[in-house]
Specification:
Number of strands of chain B: 10
Largest sheet of chain C: 2 strands, antiparallel
Chains: A mainly alpha (348), B alpha/beta (264), C mainly alpha (315)
Mean pLDDT of chain B: 89
Shape of chain C: globular
CATH superfamily of chain B: P-loop containing nucleotide triphosphate hydrolases
Low-confidence stretches of chain C: none
Strand order of the largest sheet of chain C: 1-6
Structural class of chain C: mainly alpha
Shape of chain B: globular
Oligomer: heterotrimer
Number of strands of chain C: 6
Chain lengths: 348, 264, 315
């Protein structure tokens, strides 16, 4: 299949997707159309983590921290000064944040940049460590961010959190940013940088021996992953319309959820990440019935909250043991792959 | 001129002296052999040259400049590349990608790195560089007759070809000094002869200098112009093949004292 | 800043008791890591399960508290062993990242299991164990007349249970030293931690040894859990996460793989955590972050910890 054909196919797929998204907003009720938006947001979270954990082979457990940073940053920038005046009851919000209000687009970009900045300063000391230690260090940083957010009353409003965020997150922002994320990460992945990252993942020592500065490359991947995590945080915060640091929404549970997405979809595959994100969103909704009363063969079973998490974590462990490749393994979607998939039964 | 100089290098791990006061000089375009019984410390010397270990004492000089203790990636960028005793190819990457990885540092070093990073993401001005790298890599692969396998996963190659790929990969870094760690390990006699010819050819055609570790004596004696023998971390003999072969100390190290009186 | 010496001393003592709890949990982490190079995320949740076991042995099975405690600890050991058998053994040869991810999955699984079975509402542990354990031992101080009664004012005070915890931690350390260095099984453990493959070639049933290690570490976590719950009488499904993380930090601080290092790390961490809050009461909200900050600092400065040896990678 020629490059031209492939590019043509990819470009013509975009309006189709756009049409589907448009229809989803028109035809589905608001509950389900919000899920479609959420899938886009999950997709950004998953793809950004795939760049770090999947392609670079660096195991980060700190993703929730960057998402939280993005959420707080953009919220503080999109809320009007009056709203901030009303919400910040314990201590007044510091200047200049208390008098700024900027459009959602720029707030999201700044959110990404802030997260990327933190990723740089977190990655710098942490990436000198080997696998497990790095994972724990990033987990530590993620928790530190959460605890600081819970206590810095003059910046984050402490335990009160931020409420009544304007409802900017819609399908177009979410999927638009998803497109940008996928384009960037794929571009990076299919370049010499991507090759270098994969080489580092395969054999760090050999990669170094071939002239690659492992630390620099991993740091770059980590920062880019952090940037898009921040973007996803901005979208997520506005989707939730509340940022409450007392719940587990931006804690290690979130990191774990994103991990589920990428493991399910295939660790190392960008397409897999999106599939994983979508599956996770669907399963989360579908499994809701487990938490309400059920009718099983005429017996009424009282729903148990937390059942969903149980199913997810059980599924996760089973996948890790029996099917670690996940759905896509390390392969990506390709037009050729799609064609050969349908041509399987043909005789040569 | 002396391309590589090891000036009295010593490597101590706690109380154990793995390498003791080894000095050697490799001249440009030489094929130099490093041999010795198992455990003599040959790979350790390699590791000290490539920066994986920092010598406890002594200096390593490349092109008369000191490179002692520099990190491995910097040493490679200076022009020294290696292969590994146990094959360390990038298993999940294709044959071609393995070689192209070695070219990455030529575009990613220092000042240029950020601009190439953005070029990679935006794809502006990128494709020409990429096809340049690709054709250079294919050229290199054809030297080893591997170009036909370019898009196969490197792990699917037969063992002998994998060893050749490691050499191609090392060459692709643009290095002028190649450190080959047991390149003939596991090869049958005809493959070994092919390897000897290949190494000579790449030395002649690419102007390389080769320092190699080997156990296969036919290869060493047939290929190397000068040899150094290590035992227990120390130099016990040095010279051309004819000299080293007859050196009593070498025979003793390999075969034991009894053989010294028995052998000719 | 509150630098009153009496308060400092009191905080030191409090810290010592908290630290010995961390130490007991940290030992389990360090033992498993020493053998498998695996950070058993689920360790803190075994701690939590042990407390629930004890809770239900007393409330449902109506067992006397000491019996419930022993049973709970045994169940914790069994749980640890089972987790290894089911979840970790199948991936023994997988890359370490996979093992780590699986451990996280197991941790969440146990937590959500607890939520489903026991419900997420915190329950009070106060009535389970005799109140005498929480009576204060007072050292120093003066007798004063207050409200018509004799009351001791000032001095250093700590509950009986803290002293018991310290003693238990010391006993555990001695027991482990004997076990690891003076028994055959202990020697097998040491061998496995050095080289699994060779040890199995020597005819040692490596899986059994690993299982034993998990059981032993989990039993200690169980003991730590019960002692913790007596001191802080509340049980809820996520109670294991923060103490577990802190114990892990302690293990890394002391040198991961070293049992005395874990104990030392636990004590130091407990003491510094309490003293930090004591000296700067305004920073109390940050006390959990403190452990993580220590973790980052150690990993940056000396990743092998206080008593660990740096790993040399062979190329």
């Amino acid at each position: 299949m020629s490059k031209k054909t492939k590019t043509l196919l990819t470009l013509s797929a975009l309006p189709v997707i756009a049409l589907l998204l448009f229809l989803s907003q028109e035809l589905l009720n608001s509950y389900y159309s919000r899920i479609i938006t959420l899938i886009g947001i999950y997709g950004i979270m998953a793809v950004s983590l795939t760049l770090v954990n999947g392609i670079s082979g660096v195991f980060s457990l700190g993703h929730a921290g960057f998402i939280a940073l993005g959420a707080y940053t953009s919220a503080l920038l999109t809320l009007s000064p009056q709203q901030k005046e009303m919400t910040f009851l314990i201590e007044k919000l510091i200047w200049p944040l208390n008098s700024i209000q900027i459009p959602f687009f720029w707030a999201t970009i700044i959110a990404g940049l802030v997260a990327a900045l933190f990723a740089f300063f977190i990655g710098w000391p942490s990436l000198r460590l080997t696998g497990d230690y790095f994972a724990i260090a990033t987990l530590g940083f993620s928790e530190i961010i959460r605890i600081f957010a819970l206590n810095l009353n003059s910046i984050t409003n402490g335990a009160l959190g931020l409420k009544a965020l304007p409802d900017y997150s819609n399908v177009w922002w979410a999927w638009g940013w998803l497109l940008v994320t996928v384009a960037c990460v794929m571009s990076l992945s299919y370049s010499s940088f991507g090759r270098a990252l994969r080489a580092i993942r395969e054999d760090r020592v050999a990669a170094q021996a071939m002239g690659i500065n492992v630390f620099k490359h991993q740091l770059m991947a980590f920062v880019v992953g952090g940037f898009f995590a921040g973007i996803s945080g901005s979208l997520y915060g506005h989707w939730l319309s509340t940022i409450d640091p007392r719940t587990n929404t931006f804690g290690i549970l979130l990191t774990f959820n994103v991990l589920i997405m990428i493991v399910l979809g295939g660790l190392g595959s960008i397409t897999g990440a999106i599939i994983g994100g979508a599956l996770f969103a669907f399963l989360s909704e579908w499994l809701r019935f487990l938490e309400g009363p059920m009718n099983l063969f005429g017996f009424k079973i009282v729903g148990m909250s937390g059942m969903r998490m149980l199913v997810f974590s059980g599924l996760f462990v089973i996948i890790m043991i029996f099917w670690p490749r996940g759905i896509m393994g390390r392969s990506e979607f390709s037009w050729e792959g799609l064609v050969s998939f349908f041509r399987r039964g043909e005789k040569k | 001129m002396s391309l590589l100089t090891l000036d009295n290098i010593t490597m101590k791990f706690g109380g154990l002296t793995a390498i003791g006061e080894v000095s050697l000089e490799v001249k440009e375009r030489e094929i130099f052999g490093l041999i010795g019984p198992n455990g003599a410390g040959k790979t350790t010397v390699f590791n000290m040259i490539t920066g994986h270990y920092r010598p406890t004492e002594g200096r390593v000089l490349f092109k008369e400049k000191e490179i002692t203790g520099l990190p491995p990636d910097r040493i490679t960028r200076n022009g020294i590349a290696r292969t590994f005793q146990n094959i360390r190819l990038f298993k999940d990457l294709t044959v071609l990608e393995n070689v192209m990885v070695s070219q990455h540092h030529t575009i990613a070093s220092n000042g240029e790195a950020m601009s190439w990073f953005f070029k990679s993401v935006s794809r502006i001005g990128y494709s020409q560089k990429e096809s340049e790298m690709r054709s250079k890599a294919m050229e290199l692969l054809s030297v080893f007759d591997l170009d036909g396998h370019a898009d196969e996963k490197s792990s699917s190659l037969p063992y002998g070809s994998q060893r050749l790929l490691e050499i191609a990969r090392a060459m692709a870094t643009g290095a002028t000094l190649l450190l080959l760690d047991e390149p003939a390990a596991g090869m049958n006699p005809s493959e070994t002869i092919g390897l000897v010819n290949t190494i000579r050819r790449i030395r002649d055609d690419f102007g390389l200098t080769v320092l190699l570790i080997e156990h296969d004596m036919k290869l060493v004696m047939g290929l190397c112009e000068r040899i150094m023998v290590l035992d227990h971390g120390r130099t016990i003999s040095e010279g051309n093949p004819a000299f080293v072969q007859k050196d009593v100390k070498v025979i003793e190290a390999y075969l034991g004292r009894e053989w010294v009186t028995v052998g000719k | 800043m509150n630098l009153d010496p009496k308060t400092l001393l009191q905080n030191f003592v409090n810290g010592l008791s908290l630290g010995s709890l961390y130490a007991l949990i940290a030992i389990g982490y360090t033992m498993v890591y020493g053998i498998l190079r695996l950070i058993n995320f689920a360790h803190g949740d075994i701690f939590m399960m042990a407390v629930y076991f004890a809770f239900f042995f007393v409330t449902l099975a109506q067992l006397p508290w000491y019996l419930a405690a022993v049973l709970a600890i045994s169940c914790a050991a069994l749980l640890g062993f089972t987790v290894d058998r089911i979840a970790y053994k199948p991936i023994r040869n997988a890359p370490r990242i996979s093992a780590l991810i699986t451990a996280i999955g197991v941790s969440f699984f146990l937590e959500s299991l607890a939520v489903v079975i026991f419900s997420g509402i915190p329950r009070s542990f106060r009535t389970i164990f005799p109140q005498s354990l929480n009576e204060m031992i007072i050292i120093g101080g003066q007798v004063e007349m207050k409200y018509g009664r004799e009351v001791i004012v000032g001095g250093i005070r700590f509950p009986v249970i803290s002293l018991i915890t310290l003693i238990v931690a010391a006993i555990a350390l001695v027991f482990l030293w004997w076990f690891i260095f003076k028994t055959k099984v202990g020697m097998a453990m040491r061998a496995v931690s050095l080289d699994i493959q060779t040890t199995s070639l020597m005819g040692v049933n490596v899986d059994k040894v690993i299982g034993m290690t998990f059981a032993l570490g989990s039993a200690l976590a169980g003991i730590g859990g019960i002692l913790w719950a007596i001191r802080y009488p509340q049980v809820w499904p996520y109670m294991g996460f923060i103490p577990g993380m802190k114990a892990f930090v302690a293990a890394v601080f002391g040198g991961i793989g070293s049992v005395p290092g874990a104990v030392l790390g636990g004590l130091i961490l407990g003491i510094t955590e309490v003293m930090m809050v004591g000296i700067m009461p305004g920073a109390a909200g940050y006390r959990d972050a403190f452990a993580f900050i220590i973790l980052i600092v150690i990993l940056s400065v000396k990743p092998s910890g206080l008593m660990g040896k740096p790993e040399i990678v062979k190329v």
